[in-house]
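Database export, one record per block. Field names are fixed; values are copied verbatim from the stored entry.
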Amino acid sequence: MSDTYNDPLAVALFSEILMADQLARNRLGKALPKGMELSHFAVLNHLAHVNTERNPAQLAAAFHVTRGAMTNTLSKLEWAGYVHIRPDWEDARRKLVVISPAGRTARDEALRAITPVIAEAVSSIGSERVRAALPVLRELRQRLNEEE
């Protein structure tokens, strides 16, 4: 076995990333408005940013989840009135999803709730150190995405 399979630096990096992810999800999940899950916020935030209709397969690909998982999330968001799902008029087998006005309001409320948590974390580390870490994390994400 080569040393690349036993690289302590790589193991330490991924251990820190995975633990930070778990802790961030836990803290943000607690800060979200009652009944909203992190996956719900993520989809609403994505739809608010793209500001156009997406089909469930596109959303599943964007979040690297199965279509079934995305369908489950979208069903909950539709039930809450946060998204509108309609048939694709060009292909009746497909559906299209768009954020509703209530979904924008819920997303904005959630963003207001989690912003202090995020801001405190960045402030405690320092803006310059966070700014310096972003290019490395961004490149790591891009490389991991290429390997799929």
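Remark 1: Residues 3-146 form a domain with the Arc Repressor Mutant, subunit A fold (CATH 1.10.10.10).
Remark 2: The mean pLDDT is 94.
End of record.
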